[in-house]
Structures
1.
Amino acid sequence: MKFRFGGPILLVLLSLPASLFAKCLIAPGGTLEVRAPAGNLLVDTSGSDSVDVEISSRQVTLQEICSRDKVTVTATATSGMSGIPDWKIRVPRNVTLDLSTQAGNIQVDDTDGAEALLRTSGGKVTAGNIKGSALIKGGEVKTGNIGGNVELRGMGGRLQIGDVGGNAEFYSTGGDITAGVIRGHVKAVSGSGSIVIRESSGDVVVTTQEGDISSDYVHGAFDGSTQSGNIRVERVGAWVHAFTGNGDILFRLVPEKLGGDLHIKAEARIGNITMYLPEKMKATVDAVIDKPALGTKKIFSDFPGSALKVPIDALRSLIPGGPEKQGMTINGGGNTIKAHTSSGTIRILKGN
Amino acid sequence: MSCQDFQRQIVLDLYGELNEGEKVGLETHLYQCEGCRQAVKEQSEFSSTLASEASAFDFPSDLLVESRRALADQLDQIERKRPWWRIPTFSVVFTPMRMLESAALIAMGLAFGVYISNQQTVPAPAGANAIAETLPQNGLVSNVRIVSADSSTATVEFTGDIVQPLRFTGRIEDDTTRRLLFSAVQDSMNPGSRMQAVEVLARESSEPSVKEVLIHAFLNDDSLGVRLKAFEGLKPFAGDEQVRNAFMQALMSDPNDGVRVAVVDALAPFTKNEAAASSIAEATKYDDNTYVRLKGQGLIHTVGAQK
């Protein structure tokens, strides 16, 4: 009699999307390694001394290897797997996270581990504040502040990050890159999208094929390039290289010392160039507009510079429709300033 | 060069007619050739004889006139053989042909001068098709061609293009603003501008004409950035049939994983029935991206479970 009802009940229980569990003790500062064939990894960092994993699907078989310093959780998926299960993971806050899923989103609360490696081949990554360094790859990435160095790689999605305590590298096939205050150097490359670095204590090297580049303050040197978009750096502390195929360039040079390397190379194929320089900066200027507007002067400066000897090819500028060129020395000459646009305006102005 | 060539140069050299290169070449040759050195000696003696004894000769008074006329005739023949595009060499001898060319050049110069002075005084005519009598000071002129140059009236007619800087402020819903934004979306040479325009238009994506432009950009633009911006504008309308169709098309054809991931995520909340879920499952069945494939297949189970 007992078995008459027991069989169907067991069948019903087995057919329900039952959860799978794993639990391992982990030492403070230990490492959690997750390798998921597919799954949304939802990491709650409010745990005390153990790693708890719960999966919302019977289509995977969970395997765990437990030691005090390192816990590894993997799973094998059934062949007909469909849908993406949720992996609910609970860990102590001070654990190093090394999470990887082939398909799924990754969501991590604030973590104090030495490192956070969060990778998904498709899906978003969302993280709170990360105390250590971080390597994050995902379709779209959004994080809070990161204490150490960071490398973010996006595959067709926006990369958004708060402040960074070390150096930062951003790579995106497409999608905007937005970062807060970076205490180190910055390298950012986007296939298609704008790049905004609010502030950087070091040098900034940014490249995008299409999109604007902007920063409030780059304390070091700035090297920015976009094929189509504007470049705007409100304050920059050292040398500047800026190139845009189609757009305007504007920056304000505010070096702490005038004795450093303050050379400038700015080129806007189609667009205007505006630069503000320190009033006492020594510079030798070479400004060229290939196709100036008819009958108007398009190179402006409010520095009392002295004109350089006109090179022979500059005589072409006397021909209507020829290039407009201006060479001058500021404060006796020094740092080279090259500004070049095919059509647009060049302004070299006193900034402070 | 043969000795004969060098000996011709010797005469020219005596009258200072050789350029530096030819002079160096001749001097180098003379260094090696006894015969030519002898020729130099003879020519020098002949010249000095002429110079010293010229005063003793009594030339007919019309010899100089005749010589100049003969020289002019010879130069005219040379001029006629010269291709029209070759610039005449400078010479103090005025042939009829050269005088004609000079007159034509002066006429063109005058015409250009009149044109330059006119452009600063004559006001601009109204109407897009009117012939411009003045040029905007900030215009960039290109593709200029001279249609006609009439030396009798000293006028020249040009055609060409003028590009002027534009600065315009308007509300997004205004016609002119929207026309400019649509024009920017179609600027094939400037993906950065397209991206900005699409981003601005995405704020008004509920408007049917804007939605159409966004759909077109989303499905057809080469720039991933533009497609992603267009997607952001369309995402809230994933339940709308027109947008859903566009998303389905992108799901099957967009080469970027990020776009397909975003699309399948956007479609999921609006997939309420089995037919819709099946079509997504079908579209994603062979997707290279595991996330897209699993998410697409999983929607059938999600819809089934909701029932």
2.
Amino acid sequence: MTSSDAVTSTSSAAPAVGGRGEPLVSVRNLAKYYVRGGQVIPVLVDIDLDVYPGDYVALMGPSGSGKSTLLNLIAGIDKPSSGEIRVAGVDIAGLSEGDLAAWRAANVGFIFQFYNLMPVLSAFRNVELPLLLTGLSRGERHERVETVLALVGLTDRSDHFPNELSGGQQQRVAIARALITDPTIIVADEPTGDLDRTTAQEILGLLDRLNRDIGKTIIMVTHDPKSAEKAHRLIHLEKGVLAD
Amino acid sequence: MFIPLLILRNAFRHKLRTILTVVGIVVAITAFGLLRTIVDAWYAGANASSSARLITRSSVSLVFPLPLTYAQKIRQIEGVQAVSWMNWFGGVYISERNFFPQFAIDAQSYLDMYPEFILSPEERKAFLADRSGAIVGRKLAETYGWKVGDQIPLRGTIFPGTWNFNLRGIYDGADKGTDQSTMFFHFGLLNETVKKLYPRRGDSAGLFVVRLRDPGQAAEVSAAIDATFKNSLAETLSETEKAFQLSFVAMTEAILLAIQAVSYLVIVIIMAVMANTMAMTARERSAEYATLKALGFSNAFVASLIFAESIGIAVLGGVIGIALTFPLAHAFADRMGSLFPIFFVGEETLALQAGAALLVGVVAAAAPAWHTARVRIVDGLRAVG
């Protein structure tokens, strides 16, 4: 079994790169605002958006445009003020906190700007972490981790702790962690924001491969046009409103 | 083993901080245990007393003796099974520093009344047969290296002169709560000597010990004894042996309260220190806990990680603290000599120590766990450790 086989074998989203049909992510009339000192501050206003299986979408916009907020809402780590978010047919805005956590565990792979690895765990155990929420046996978990670490090219670094890895390697561990549960979507918030240009290109290349070869649906926030070039779709946000 | 490993590694992430916290808990739990043991030692006499025995003494003061003839009258009172009597001797062995209690007792009746003092039949027989004989507790004998057959000279203070006693037996306690630091000798020897030297002081006892037929009748029999001697030249005050012992404890109640307050204060202080440590720890790891929640772990799981870490540190400190209490209490008892004849770390103290350690762990984690569980994931991810 190849690395790609291992990950795609349980994929819940049909890989159809750039394909159309039923949207995997469907956002309707989405709004998010905060109340600060009695004042209502709109962050996202009346957002409609569809993301299809196998899409590689880049959310772009200046700081404060609401792109990270939109990503967080789609990933189910924030709640909208109004509107609907459906992912693979599930209205996640209506889920309870507990159900939402279980939904995230099964459907979302996270890639953060600063990797957000557990510093006290080895690369291997960091990748294994999300599998603790599944019913897999220890042996099955280890088999999967080895496969995914091989996919991101870190087999020889599996016993290393995050502080023993470079930024690029840490991000690859984070990508492996995002992949390990074979999620419906992968959300990446400025995945190259903390990396130098060369390493950033490697990470973007890896994400591109995941999308192209495995058919992973990726939604990425970036303010870097070079990073956004890899995506199939660019979505611009300006002051909480979709620009195109 | 994944989760225990994560908790363990988290706990020792800042080794110095964790070690200092553990040391703090060790000191607090040890101090708590030692102070509790001191308080227990204070109450040891009362706790070891029997509910089937009464003490009858002068109603004016313990220093005034009662006529020995009272023994016969008390024996005739309804509900009384047996009577014995004793006198505080107050002798000095070599120097004033070697303090230990000595009592002149009516040996036969006294030993019958106190079965918790265990003597071999041979030693008992030898003691009863020798008017200058004495018996001592095992702990006292070990303190001064005495063995059966030795001569023990005491310099009398209340009853002047040099008194030489033949050590005829070493008694053991029926349990570890029995006093083994006392010396007993024959009342007859004391009485005869006193009668020769001070005729008016003879034939009197410091107090009478009364064994009841039914412990439930203690109040009635006490009242009956005191009524018998009412309006006499030496009125009596009868009370249970426990009440008698507690009257001594009551004299130092303020000190005991202070010791108890300090023992609990120590726990409160370490609780605050530990809570601060856990709050700092949780704050530093806000982004990590938020990441765990983003990955799908529940709020309860994240809170349980904090509780487990806090309880783990507290229990580690507690176990070391409890273990250290024993040698420390032993050293303290040695240093105090016979001031505390019964001094041991009780089971209740151990349970309280364990409970205190656990409580410290739980209380210290409560606020940070609650806050971490409630904080929004997006806010946690923004936090800088």
